[in-house]
Amino acid sequence: MIDWMYYSIQALTLGIAAYLLWETYRSQLVGRTHFIALGVIEAALVVQFITALVLVIPAAGDSKALFFSYLLTAMLVLPIAAVWGSIDRSRWGIGTVAIGCLVASALLLRVNQIWDYQVNV
């Protein structure tokens, strides 16, 4: 993986998670700006996925299936959290989306660990 891309996506995901937690504190509902923020993260994850395809396929290490399963799960968490958060019209709907961002960040951390210790050996 490209380090600067990983760190920038992590910073973006954690920053938007902090923003969404602040919106949870303010009892806001999931709105257009939140969907735009999630779209930016999702676009960055798609770029990361395409980059990973180019870098991982010719790599010599094992655990490529595990690597891609974590990366695909990170890509799927945000749309699921967005749908779930928009259905829930309480203050915790936006909290669900914030937790989805934190889960995506944790999954990306695991993707980076798999890259460092099992794929790129």
Automatic annotation (TrEMBL):
It comes from Natronoglycomyces albus. It comes from the Bacteria. Keywords: Membrane, Transmembrane, Transmembrane helix. This is Uncharacterized protein. The chain crosses the membrane at residues 6-22, 34-59, 65-85, 92-111. The keyword Membrane applies.
